[in-house]
Amino acid sequence: MTTMKWSLLFSCSLVQPLTLLALVLIVLITTSHLVSSSSSHDYNDALTKSILFFEGQRSGHLPPNQRLTWRGDSAVFDGSAAGVDLSGGYYDAGDNVKFGFPLAFTTTMLAWSVIEFGDSMPSGELLNAAGALRWATDYLLKTVSLPGKIFVQVGDPIKDHNCWERPEDMDTARTVYMVSEEKPGSDIAGETAAALAAASMVFRSLDNEYSVTLLQNAVRVFKFADDYKGAYSDDAGIRAGVCPFYCDFDGYQDELLWGAAWLRRASQDASFLTYIQDNGKTLGADDNINEFGWDNKHAGLNVLVSKEFLEAQEYSLESYKASADSFMCTLVPESSASHIQYTPGGLIYKPGGSNMQHVTTIAFLLLTYANYLEKTSQIVNCGSISVGPTSLRLQAKKQIDYLLGDNPMKMSYMVGYGEKYPQRIHHRGSSLPSKSSHPKFIACKEGSIYYNSSNPNPNPLIGAVVGGPGEDDVYEDDRADFRKSEPTTYINAPLVGALAYFVANPNLNA
After folding, report:
1. Active-site positions, per UniProt (predicted)?
2. 223 Cβ partners below 8 Å, 6+ apart?
3. Residue 320's CB: how many other CB atoms inside 10 A?
4. Residue 260: which of 246, 245, 275 has the closest Cα?
5. CB 323 within 8 A of CB 281
6. pLDDT of amino acid 469
7. Are 49 and 421 in contact (CB under 8 A)?
8. What integer pLDDT is reported at residue 510 of this predicted model?
9. Which helix (H) or strand (E) holds 34?
10. How far is it, in rounded angstroms, from Cα 410 to Cα 66?
11. Which is the most buried residue in 214, 341, 429, 493, by most CB within 10 A?
């Protein structure tokens, strides 16, 4: 679920004693100094688990190498009512609905994580990340398989949210929602084009034929998005299924620019450069530049496009670089810019719930922009102060380290990482007994006893990052409080890239 989602349910004897004491004190002081000046986190372990999480969100027929074995096949006939195979993909969060808009954004961010930081990943984890990405892109290709149509969601969220049911037992309506030329969806089409284009870059060296397929479909889907403009949730029929969960609150214009920017990067086609040059003003590139997430792409768009301005000296894109700089300045407490809110413990905080989505996306942008600046020997001017790449990376590290346990609660917000982490996450499959331990069917309302239980979830969803603490840094570990206790795929996707950076740079210092 997201900020607007809701639920209806529910780590020597010869030495004189005094001399020995002195030696012990010297060792303790030296050890203390070493601990304080180096990382206290196992970023490699966190990276491994952040990718493993996606296996717990899989829909469809699970592969033989499925590692989270408490999950089983589910929703294998998705799309049959519409005469199309829509099995596969990911459940977005703790429910059993496949929401296409956040799924496409998750795919883009997972691909971007590999593009920017794949070289920092151990080879095994790079392959696991590519596998997680392909599970998403295989599904997205199915959603765009019919000309002039894009399938944007599978599952009736109202009926789904009235149940607390394992995905393997799911018997609620698998309603299919679709955009078309008559019912446009430039937002989800633009994001899907971005996802396929970004993923094509990842697979270029792994499976070139697949990479070509992804890019060809990205071009076609973007044309659909641009030719038939409109927000998908403006249609009454679609709105009934996607709102208030994943409505388009911020308009479709940013997704058009975002899709074009990714197509430019993936294809180097001059027509996409012209598009982002010519349409920046009319499509609101200067609007809402301090937001980035599944619904608002502005800050990410500005960082992405700035790469070409900085490295290729494409001066017509200077306004994107200026907006990216402005966004970075809002993250620097010492700057004169209006600041993003932080908790007393130092966590980026935005009201509305599922706060860790902001933490991970912003940390990712900080690290990515720092790389672009460093490569071109640039800094950011924030009024009376200048901010360099190292400063941006330290800002990101504070956020990631808070998530992993450096916080007032002294707990990790990633399931399975550290000694103390959430035990009662808002997630149906995790909180209900597995099919292997309880083969008998558990009907819709029969799951309520597990939802209301104070017991820890029987199936740890390793790597899941929950919404996190409130503005007071307090986390109650309450399954019912979905704003804090529910994980989402779009929290983890950018986290994969951020953790990969710190795997290679664990002891970052000012």
Report:
1. 426, 477, 486
2. none
3. 28
4. 275
5. no
6. 98
7. no
8. 60
9. helix 17-37
10. 32
11. 493
Which distant-in-sequence residues (6+ apart) come within 8 Å of 488 by Cβ?
Answer: 1, 2, 92, 93, 102, 354, 357, 467
Question: What is the spatial distance between Cα 416 and Cα 427, in angstroms, rounded to a whole number?
Answer: 15
User: Cα separation of 304 and 506, whole Å?
Assistant: 25
With a cut of 80, say whether residue 97 has pLDDT above it.
yes
Contact 163, 445 (CB under 8 A): yes
Cβ neighbours for 465, distance < 8 A, ≥ 6 positions apart: 50, 53, 356, 360, 403, 413, 414, 415, 487, 491, 492, 495
- Taking the C-alpha atoms of residue 147 and residue 180, their distance in angstroms, rounded to an integer, is 9
Sign of the alpha-carbon dihedral angle for 71, 72, 73, 74: negative
Sign of CA dihedral 430, 244, 353, 404: positive
For helices 253-267 and 298-312, give the axis angle rounded to 10 degrees.
Answer: 30
Strand bridging mode 176-180 / 380-382: unpaired
Reported confidence tier of residue 195, pLDDT bands at 50, 70, 90: very high
Q: In the beta sheet, which residues pair with residue 387?
A: 380
Active site residues: 426, 477, 486
- pTM, two decimals, is 0.92
Which residues in 361-483 belong to E strands, given as ranges? 380-382, 385-387
